[in-house]
Design goal:
The structure is a single chain. With 111 residues, the chain is α+β, with helices and mostly antiparallel strands. It folds into two domains: 1-33, no CATH class; 45-110, Nuclear Transport Factor 2, Chain: A, CATH 3.10.450. 29% of the residues lie in helices and 24% in strands. The protein contains three helices and four strands. It has a four-stranded antiparallel β-sheet with strand order 1-2-3-4, covered by helices on one side. The protein is globular.
């Protein structure tokens, strides 16, 4: 039995590029794929502008850009990138432009 397992592992190792097997005969975990950012154009321009202004004022940085938008009838979510590295900030805003909440999504404990 041991000889068979060794042979199977060798065969799998030789064909790993074709079959996706690891050298020990097991399947590797699936590769993570990046999820594209949502840019829901249903978010009203007034809500977008309100988030850009609120995040810019709170972060004390005028270098802001919307990186993601998700529309909702209650409050839309707008993710704003700040600075040259586009540090993410989440903004919840009504569709009439009233900002309900903004929050940095950066792990500030590591700064």
């Amino acid at each position: 039995m041991r000889r068979f397992m060794t042979s199977a592992a060798v065969i799998c190792a030789l064909t790993a590029s074709l079959t996706g097997c690891a050298a020990d005969g097991t399947q590797p975990p699936p590769m993570a794929t990046a999820t594209p950012a949502l840019m829901d154009e249903s978010v009203p321009p007034v809500a977008r502008s309100a988030c850009l202004a609120a995040v810019s004022n709170t972060a004390n940085n005028g270098n802001v850009e919307i990186t993601e938008m998700i529309y909702s009838e209650a409050n839309s979510q707008v993710t704003v990138g700040v600075g040259p590295t586009r540090a993410p900030w989440r903004c919840l805003v009504s569709n009439s432009g009233v900002v309900a909440n903004i929050m940095s999504m950066t792990n500030e404990g590591s700064l």
